[in-house]
Amino acid sequence: MKKTMLASFGALTVAALAPTLVFAHGYVAGEFPSRVNLCHSTNGSKNDCASASYDRQSLEAPKGFPTTGPVDGKIASAQKGGSFDVLDQQSSNKWYKTKIQAGQNDFHWFSTANHKTTDYVYYITKPGWDQNAPLTRASFDLANPFCVINMDGQQPPKDLGDAHSCTVPERSGYQVILSVWTIDDTANAFYNVIDVEFEDGVTPPPLPDVWEQSTTIAPKEDLVAGDKVKARFFDSSVGSFTTNTIIEINSTASGQRNTWSYDLAMAINAEQTDAKSGVKSSDDVFTPIYGNNPIYLKADSNLSSVEIDIVKGDIPVDDSITVVGLENEYVINNNAVEVTFNIEAVGNLNVTNTVFDANNKAIGSASAHVNDTVKSFTISLDDVTAGTFKLVSVANSNDDSNLSLQESNSFNIVNADVPGDCQDVQAVDISKQYKPGDKVSYQENIYQAERWTDTGMTPDQPYSGWVIVGPCA
Known about the structure:
Elements: E1 26-28, H1 35-41, E2 60-62, E3 98-100, E4 103-107, E5 109-111, E6 117-124, E7 147-150, E8 159-160, E9 164-168, E10 173-183, E11 188-198, E12 211-217, E13 228-235, E14 240-248, H2 257-271, E15 275-277, E16 279-280, E17 286-287, E18 293-298, E19 303-311, E20 320-324, E21 329-331, E22 336-346, E23 348-356, E24 362-371, E25 374-382, E26 387-397, E27 404-414, E28 426-427, E29 439-442, E30 445-449, E31 466-471
Parallel strand pairs: 3-11, 21-27, 28-29
Antiparallel strand pairs: 1-5, 2-11, 4-9, 5-8, 6-7, 6-10, 10-11, 12-18, 13-14, 13-19, 15-18, 16-17, 20-22, 22-25, 23-24, 23-26, 26-27, 29-30, 30-31
């Protein structure tokens, strides 16, 4: 059996709220320490809460919880105020979490003065509680305290008291336990919260996840105006970084470490299809937070890893390439297509552009030297069929042998408009999977399947497996 011990906070005495001074103090200690005890035992290094570490035994407020006691939003600090307000900060990544399992666990209060006691009561947060909002009564399952230790006015042992053997209910992930130690002969009680992470035995094995965590945006420093943060996504199908999401810091406020982490996660969610960032819900909703933001990659995509780069604004302008003028569609003419576009280059670069088909086969390329200018390119493709293609542009510097740049863009090749009647083909049924070559009609256009199609997606959606043939006649 895995044991869990908690440490209680000490007494809070406010004349207006607690008229009787109390000299009994305590906190939850042991293998599973309370939030304030961790602030003390690690000098705040785990959770950046050193200001609350000096008086861990003094978190006291009026008894009678949940009818009375500390107000909502101040439960973790027992409404003590001052340097203890940091304890009320609440997010999914703020506090160090101790591993715990559902079932029988032993909790311990450490009493610096063994005052007469009414009881010890333990509550736990509800399933689905908001991890990124201050703790309130609504956060906890108050109707079902999972453990009540009645003392009937007896004195507990001093120092590390008897174990409170309690059955912890099943939960998953991050949860908060609230333990209330009610003093029998005063008007007060002690309030401690414990941050725990359920590790196993609480839920059936999940189905394979559509999203897999790759890395985390873990901000370590504040940035200044002019700095940039870049998320670079590695595409295993072409063996290189193919796409970037970049944010630029434009003020002191936006350069705060937790702010730029939030902004980068928001930008990834807006720009990327196969990558998302933030706190992931059970129904695959990603919510960026002001702090550490995990980055997830779609399991069936070609993206395999992510790198986070910080580019300082006081560094000279970096070499770069930008593809402009690439059309969304090119039309087949006599089984051939000419793909035209421009490269905007910053720096003295040798640029190679390669077109890959849906099977990741290189079918055409064009290269040139481009030095701080815009260069036009044409890639002729012969014997092509309609489908989705990718242009990968790679640049190597003439001045820096270690520099390599890349940009990737997708485009479609379509058949020339031909007379056709939507009545000659079946209307698409999005509940059905079609094989390569099948044709359907949708919104006055005829589409052809270039691969086995995805169900639940209309032909005009990206990555649905369909390519437009042309409008109905």
